């Protein structure tokens, strides 16, 4: 089993009032990828980090094998979600993968 963690900061121009709605859309659409992307077992979306955190939101996924990370990254359903609900609003992506 492999864990894939991605963290982002919101772009500076994103207004605080819009962040809850954006987080909700990210959470719903990223979670919906389970069962659509081969090898993707679980999705956890972290939208309320504690103040000591360096990023605003995080995605914690579990995949069957290390090779599934590449499948996930290029899968059309994931690309559509990322391009629509994530990438337009975030910056400073950080990623950590581990077994």
TrEMBL record:
Transmembrane annotation, as ranges: none
Occurrences of domain Stress-response A/B barrel (ranges): 2-98
Stored PROSITE patterns: S_R_A_B_BARREL (PS51502)
Signal sequence bounds: none
Record-linked SMART domains: Dabb
InterPro entries: Dabb, Dimeric_a/b-barrel
Pfam families: Dabb
Protein name listed in UniProt: Dabb family protein
Species for this entry: Mediterraneibacter catenae
